[in-house]
Amino acid sequence: MTDVHSDQILVEEYPAGSPSMRLSVVTETWPPEINGVSLTLSKLVQGLCARNHQVQLIRPRQTRVDQAMRHTGFEEVLMRGMPIPRYPELKLGLPGKRALIQAWTLKRPDLVHIATEGPLGWSALQAARRLRLPVTSDFRTNFHAYSQHYGVGWLRKPIVAYLRKFHNLTRLTMVPTQALRAELIAGGFHHVQVVARGVDTQLFRPERRSEALRAAWGATAGSLVLLVVGRLAAEKNLDMVLRAFEAMRVAHPDVKLVFVGDGPLRESLRQRCPQAVFAGMQRHQELAAYYASADLFLFPSVTETFGNVTIEALASGLPVLAFDTAAAADWVRHEANGWLVPPGDESAFAALAASLAREPACLVQARALACAEVAQLDWQQIALQVEALFLQTLGTPASPAPVVRARTLPAM
To answer: Are residues 50 and 169 in the same domain?
Structure first.
């Protein structure tokens, strides 16, 4: 109990708080769909709601019986959608400019943030411009880079032109890495800002390591377990995983390979590598245990804008072998918490994998350093960064952090 006769008392002084914003967030993917965009965007929305902002989430209806949620801390508006070719479990938002103009006329947001550049995102951009609403955007997926993996490489230039037009019509485009910012600016994109992705460090941590899970994979104390997490699809460069696996098996008597995820290449990979473990989709604590229980994370993709799985692995104490691009370029320190190879140098990737198999002690040393590098990437800090950019866009300065001062009380 406070002594009312004392001369001083410590009180927490909060400066005038940042004003609560009415935000409309537009996305064509959302949980329970599992991909980097949906999972990271949901964390960001939760963080913005926790900071007392009013969020209206606009997304495609995922099933015929999908209903807008009312108890999530934010409002949902469901739009028409259709399955994406080759990604039938995901939906593409259909154009809805008229419906959005009507919704935003009745309930006008302070700012519209568009996370995806599909038909729904384009409709949202046009509706917001009609109503003179401020718009910001995310650049989250390298669609132009994916085109070459699906036999439509000739579409690369038109896709880049569309993305440039889309983002340059917004006041701000958020990207997750400095390298991507430099690439987009060189390609004619304007007003590009870096906002890192977050990671749940309470979920993904080294203490999740499970010897029982390793035993289920057939691994012993002397085994090396390689882990791959993500969609089993052409753009992920999974041939490189098999090449690295074979190189490591030559150098070490007991190497295991575990795939977490699903996709169109699953059956082909199973036929080519029957000794691998195909765990399917894993979530939450189960996924965290997979990360922490492996010995090396392989990330051979060169088409990612970020690659959230990279920082999830590091947070779990799992060292990473990757090309020097996307999240790995920013968060993997070569020969400390992982290893980096020049982008596209597949021979070097396989050779380095074999070298690590010959010196497994290097993996043990890297485990101890893996999680320290990403410890500051908690989602509260990311929400603060995004909030500051929204307020900057609206011309409102962000408020400083609260301070603690001693205040003298009047005599009683």
So the answer is: yes
Dist. CA 314–CA 312, nearest whole Å: 6
Task: Round to whole Å and give the CA distance between 154 and 371.
Answer: 41
* Cβ count near 153 (within 10 Å): 13
Quick: pLDDT tens for 110-150.
Answer: 999 999 998 999 999 999 999 999 999 999 775 444 434 34
Q: Do residues 320 and 326 make contact, with C-beta atoms less than 8 angstroms apart?
A: no
DSSP three-state, residue 99: helix
The pTM for the full model equals 0.77
Do 135 and 275 sit in the same domain of this protein?
Answer: no
In a domain, 87, yes or no: yes
CATH number, domain containing residue 256:
3.40.50.2000
Calpha distance 386→194 (Å, rounded) = 10
Distance CA 167, CA 176 (A): 15
CA dihedral 102, 105, 109, 114 (to 10 degrees): 30
